[in-house]
Fold these 2 entries.
Entry 1:
Amino acid sequence: MHMTVSVAVAGASGYAGGEVLRLLLGHPEVEIGALTAGSNAGELLGPLQPHLVPLAGRRLEATNLETLSGHDVVFLALPHGQSGEIAAQLPDSTVVIDCGADFRLADAAAWEQFYGGSHAGTWPYGLPELPGQREVLAGATRIAVPGCYPTVSTLSLAPAVAEGLVDPDVVVVAASGTSGAGKAAKTHLLGSEIMGNASAYGVGGVHRHTPEITQNLSRLVEGTVRVSFTPLLVPMSRGILATCSAALRGDVSAERAHAVYTRFYVDEPFVHVLPEGQWPQTQSVTGSNAVHLQVTVDAAARRLIAVGAVDNLAKGTGGAAVQCMNLALGLSEGLGLTTVGIAP
Amino acid sequence: MHMTVSVAVAGASGYAGGEVLRLLLGHPEVEIGALTAGSNAGELLGPLQPHLVPLAGRRLEATNLETLSGHDVVFLALPHGQSGEIAAQLPDSTVVIDCGADFRLADAAAWEQFYGGSHAGTWPYGLPELPGQREVLAGATRIAVPGCYPTVSTLSLAPAVAEGLVDPDVVVVAASGTSGAGKAAKTHLLGSEIMGNASAYGVGGVHRHTPEITQNLSRLVEGTVRVSFTPLLVPMSRGILATCSAALRGDVSAERAHAVYTRFYVDEPFVHVLPEGQWPQTQSVTGSNAVHLQVTVDAAARRLIAVGAVDNLAKGTGGAAVQCMNLALGLSEGLGLTTVGIAP
Amino acid sequence: MHMTVSVAVAGASGYAGGEVLRLLLGHPEVEIGALTAGSNAGELLGPLQPHLVPLAGRRLEATNLETLSGHDVVFLALPHGQSGEIAAQLPDSTVVIDCGADFRLADAAAWEQFYGGSHAGTWPYGLPELPGQREVLAGATRIAVPGCYPTVSTLSLAPAVAEGLVDPDVVVVAASGTSGAGKAAKTHLLGSEIMGNASAYGVGGVHRHTPEITQNLSRLVEGTVRVSFTPLLVPMSRGILATCSAALRGDVSAERAHAVYTRFYVDEPFVHVLPEGQWPQTQSVTGSNAVHLQVTVDAAARRLIAVGAVDNLAKGTGGAAVQCMNLALGLSEGLGLTTVGIAP
Amino acid sequence: MHMTVSVAVAGASGYAGGEVLRLLLGHPEVEIGALTAGSNAGELLGPLQPHLVPLAGRRLEATNLETLSGHDVVFLALPHGQSGEIAAQLPDSTVVIDCGADFRLADAAAWEQFYGGSHAGTWPYGLPELPGQREVLAGATRIAVPGCYPTVSTLSLAPAVAEGLVDPDVVVVAASGTSGAGKAAKTHLLGSEIMGNASAYGVGGVHRHTPEITQNLSRLVEGTVRVSFTPLLVPMSRGILATCSAALRGDVSAERAHAVYTRFYVDEPFVHVLPEGQWPQTQSVTGSNAVHLQVTVDAAARRLIAVGAVDNLAKGTGGAAVQCMNLALGLSEGLGLTTVGIAP
């Protein structure tokens, strides 16, 4: 069977939109239709995304119902708070995949506390690796792509939390490359400020991804999982390395923890629990849809430590978006995606 | 038509071998056979090339006739001087593609001056973008993959030299990422020494790629092109940016130079002469087989300036190797390759 | 008063030795005497430490009693396990400052568990910012310079632990530049492997700095503090950013935590508790002896979060060594040191 | 003799102003007075320049006659085109040192061609290493600090040009860190765009530093030196590495070239012609006022190749500014400056 899926991308000049397009260019069933932007509407894509050579001559259009209509799939890669209005105008039959935060949280109060403005709603959550979630996404026409930090933090802790290896009180420190902060020009994101520099931000539970991690992990247990989340900015363009830990419940050996993780993800094509003793590194997943995980226990500190690596733009955003499109359309889940990273 | 090509890679634990494998994993007609190594023989590939997830469980074998025999294609990604002996043992019908320098130079004296030891011979040179060279490579069973610096330097200057826009006396300053220096542990290549650092090396015409650039450009004219080549090491893993210039022959406008370059490469799938005013950057070609070029003239200085960008490991090594394999076997030249880079 | 202190540095070709020398070159009371090395003995310092221009013509000698004798102060910047033997030969009156780990731990069993070999002994611990420790160092003739991770981890947590704001059960995730791993050539420290990469290592309490952090924090309370310590390697040459947390004991506001930290370090010339809302970054302390700290509480997660930044080579090694020398000799503590970093 | 010089810095929140302040904080004869800014006026310096700890509590004032009056020395670190007006208001007796381009060029037409607007005038040029220039600067009350690229390009080529080793037709390719582009937020300078990327810009003689290099070199000979100048942006915060070449005039050996360079700079405290065979690297000069140079000849290409390294913010801007202040005031030229870089 061969089908051609027509796809529009709103926000095509940003990092998330660029990554969706990079992956779609390698997708065998996709025809790339309208490319839209905000302030860049009217410009050629070439100088804005010079790595997307086959699309260099495409001109960006305005983001509106007219330009986005008539496609099978619309990817929204817009600033937070802008997806709701345009999504409401698109037909129910169009598959709309939102790379932003607007539809991720079920708790409207949490949304309003962390993002401000009113909550647009809640869509099926695009993390098929969570138990039962792949079935939810099959055939869905509205999908909220997870945040990059929540993707790796959730997958790093899910087996431990779900299987009761640890107390529901977790600590996540996640070092991220800068592309997660987007392409808008800001002084603190200048190369001069970033290179040779590591910093923490959003400390104390105020980062917007905190309630999303909490929501994900709390789905796995009765009651609420407490999450202490600290994001770090480190000098690289792509990649997140999440170091996650929680107090052990009783005696758990490193071997058992590893076995639990291995079994939990045994059928997942994109989650790789590394052999014992090999730790994840972000370079290995650059450009790929893979998640690399490792787990051990610190007997003296009585904690389980899990470390996960993803490419924040790929599996953390654009890769997940394409994976969700494949699931929504009933295509093979891995079309246009790879588990092979670019290294060194 | 569908064929399955069985391929062996010698030197699978290094950077060049790893890149060949990364690309082969995305090649639809290839079956990856023996993976061999020197001191790493006997080890699993997983910890050595953690980005090559699908091959993680493969064990490296010794590099010898027995392990390499029985494949349609053998890629040699060995230290300079080691390809000759093993290549001589392989059947003439096996397609042997050497990523090293052993068979690149036609001038044995030059080889011995720059590399030491005796010259192994000269194989068809794997730069299909040179005039007439694609035909040479079709059906070839021995191919020498060009050096990374020569690839970008040659392609950046070829139109100007071949069309007589400049005197045959060129200056190339090429800034390279560190992966071109290989994976052997050396103090001056430590991350601590590389980050925050730019340096020149091999200054004064002593770098081994100098005679190769000279050979390539001199094929385009009568007589010998004089080449001043200075390589720089800059803090990035991948990519070469070559800044090339030569004295103008008479009046040449920037527009004419751009038109000459555009026409020269009009049929080349991997060479992109950018629109006037847009300059190449290495990030745009990361992981891809694309070469980005731009040219202008400096009227006051009376020089033509051409700038080219490649990924030294991709089009500069592994991508060229796969492109050559495709040509040698009569496959579509771009199979397993892309013009889309990974950015940011 | 003016005195001239004659100083020898053993291990002058490495990173720690180089940093001690960099700082000594700006110290007004120091005369740099013998420079010794292991395998580099006999070589000129110039090509090995090209940033130390005034010492470029100095030739490295072998590390032994003869070369090191006759100096007022001897800095040992040797691989772990090599300081004990040479230190034992030096006169008691010579001030010996060990930048290595040999004399840091009081617990011989812990030393042997984490470092192997037999424990050389315990010297006064060169962290004058710990309560009462400045007095111990005044006039001392044997001083163990703290490890880089323990310096920042200890100072980041000491006020919270000592003042009982938190349970004695702490989590430290510390992102480090690569210079802390030293100058010996290793594949995983190559620039190609480091750039674009973040990784965890020594996970699960097995890093050698774990018992040292435990020792430091446990001195501040009754009983033992449990420490979960995970070091990360991120793409920068210098700097450590430590993200530290622990469960709050009762209600503690962010304001109170900040006030406790500010008061704890009020007289410390090199520890800067930043104004509330400003978070430490490693770039700000590059090359300086400063430690930047910030603290807050996460009410939802019921944890105190403290973040500290140091230059691992400066305050984390060489700067602390010079600071300790100043204290040992009764010089002004800040001679040759600065709180001003090099940024951007 | 001890004097206290009161100093104001206009543009204290930018990179150039920050570097002037970093150096002044280590200058024994200086008292830092007014700190002024444009859009940041009214803010505390602490969060804007977090590395300048001793000035963290200082509040920025507006840049005007009132705030800058009453100081012995005023440093202007303003955007190009803004120095002229404020400088005209300051008393002739005030030493005014302009880190911008306004007063560098003697040729008003060149200024207007490259910078636009009207030429503000020409001040003594702050490169004391040029023959006779130190005398010009002694006692001067108006000084134009050279551009960063012109500093290293000029010093790298001056001996060869002045001594007639080469034709007056030079090629400069200079790889720079990003801080030279300033602290204003621009998309193409984001960390995500810079890391893993090398690019050329201002190609074809259009960069503003071209006429300044031409002016400097042409002072050394009769007639005009032709300059082909191409700047590159590479992934580091600080440093410029300039690769310079020109056709040899007759037979010149590498030894003779090296001897000429050594003799030319024999009395210069900040210019270090490295021993033959050792090539400059930017890391070695980070934070220092040193210029590292090396020269050789390429006999086959018949060119002299000189390579120079500076820290663009230090000797390339702030260090030169302080050096010029010292000369203007009759202080020891090296006060507050160092030849020792921070590495690794």
Note: The mean pLDDT of chain D is 97.
Entry 2:
Amino acid sequence: MQWKNNLTRLLSIEYPVIQAPMLGVSTPEMAAAVSNQGGLGSLPVGGLSPQRTTELIQQTKQLTNKPFAVNLFAHSIPAIDQSTAEAMQAYLETVCLANQIPYTKLALNDLHFYSYKDQIDVLIQEKIPIVSFTFGILDDESIQSLKAAGCLLNGTATSVKEAELLTEKDIDIISVQGIEAGGHRGTFLTDDPLPMVGLMSLLPLIADRVSKPLLAAGGIHNGQTIKAAFDLGASGVQVGTAFIASPESVAIPAYKERLQRSSETDSVLTRSFSGRWARGISNTFMREIDKSGLSIPEYPIQNSLTTALRVAAQRQNNAEFTNMWAGQLASASEAKPAADIFRKLIAQTEALF
Amino acid sequence: MQWKNNLTRLLSIEYPVIQAPMLGVSTPEMAAAVSNQGGLGSLPVGGLSPQRTTELIQQTKQLTNKPFAVNLFAHSIPAIDQSTAEAMQAYLETVCLANQIPYTKLALNDLHFYSYKDQIDVLIQEKIPIVSFTFGILDDESIQSLKAAGCLLNGTATSVKEAELLTEKDIDIISVQGIEAGGHRGTFLTDDPLPMVGLMSLLPLIADRVSKPLLAAGGIHNGQTIKAAFDLGASGVQVGTAFIASPESVAIPAYKERLQRSSETDSVLTRSFSGRWARGISNTFMREIDKSGLSIPEYPIQNSLTTALRVAAQRQNNAEFTNMWAGQLASASEAKPAADIFRKLIAQTEALF
């Protein structure tokens, strides 16, 4: 077992540690800090406009000349069920009123969702070396265009079947997302029931069936967990939650603070904020919406419906009404510069290999 | 990191591999086979009468002169809610009739539940060297009696708080049960929400806070997973599902067969069979009871109410109406003698240390 391996060579990086893309938390500064230290930073752009995607990529490039990954959301976009969406809007208005949060009603007819397909040309133009994705598999045309441009592809699996499907599409690298992971589940084959497989079972199962390099994702936060992931068949790891309390993160102060004093049972799975299953620290909004018994519109509809509420709550530094995505090792998140967090991980790991 | 360590010395065994107690699956033959190979076999007696406990212990002693553990259920016994129990009985009768399963109605007034307290004297009399328990913590008097008799105690934790509480009570060894584990969750502090922590997060968190030897439980099935558990702070492992398809197991043939062709997403958490959360392979009964919307009586009431149904289904080799407890690596269960399964595990692990 080698710490510097096929994956570091493939990605042209020094250490097989990837900063996980965390939309709403990660920044160009975070991605650049990790890439500059010899890891792989990730810039999340899922659902953003091509213009915003270009801006963020260019900002990152100004901060590093090392490779970094850009992360897409590869879901399909469902039709809006008008009555479910209207009932949810009415409910959100009530919640805002009752909690002194300014409410901005969205005109459902004006809703526009960008697809990852709108972003492919930007990625090719900007010569992005690694494109990662989650929530699905890119369509064949996008895969071919990116591969023809010399881009490496990194998909996300939460079950053996998903990993096998990514392999069939010849995706270069597979992130294996255990149930420990914070944020959205990458699940795309079926979420009824949602695959909730621990990394300790999922990694060896996928390593047995698939010959692509694997990244372990979920709860990775120190040398021990990195070593264990390698024992189980990973060639690299993805680290997200450990970077949330860093100054390079745009998480609000209340979220950073809650994260650090949370226990392993405080983070739970919820569809409340986005319509997609995600792991985050339990708060008032999550509990209230469960109690309401309302049907939650699918992703990305619910995500758009709750945007105004979340943005307003964030302005108030109000952790009870915005998502606080976090993995089961949230408490390991330190309020230190991303580069320091990264270097500590590397030092701990090198001592074990 | 040592493969033969403080735990093997403490337990006077050769290898730190414990066969997990699986009530309804494990037998004296299974426990003896593992103990005879230098591991630690476990004899589950949770909820059994003192007389039956004695018989099983004596049967095991006839098959091995090595140490083995006896496993208790340390729950408290709730009062019966008559109307919920009657509604459940009526439902179970309908299910049996609709599925050609003989139905035997239980007289609710005749229900008797044995407590682990009824079994302590037997364990002391039989000089059992290791008593493991789950679903709670033994009361102080039982702890003192067993310790005074020279017995080592092994409790089960599914969260950091539970491990800390076991440590406060000076329990000698702690089993850390990840969400990957088959069978009943050992959870005893709160199951709302149920702690669903992956071993990869739970083990290092508990290892950080607690100085007792830890056993990793959940998904452990080969050398790799044993090595990873040791990396994360375990001094030993508990292996259950891997032994279910062995000839020493009394699982019905249909259960063994389903287990071996199941995938990691086939096993789900359910309260349907016993009133306590447990992981098992999804079947018709689990799905139907969910659909019924009926309130499920607490453990052990529901367990008693479904006993006749489960026994009758087992007689028919009908896997759809009996529990098929299984961890997330159910497919690793081989139809080989327990001794062979054990020796293979040891050989794989020794090659990695």
Note: Residues 82-98 of chain B form the longest helix (17 residues).
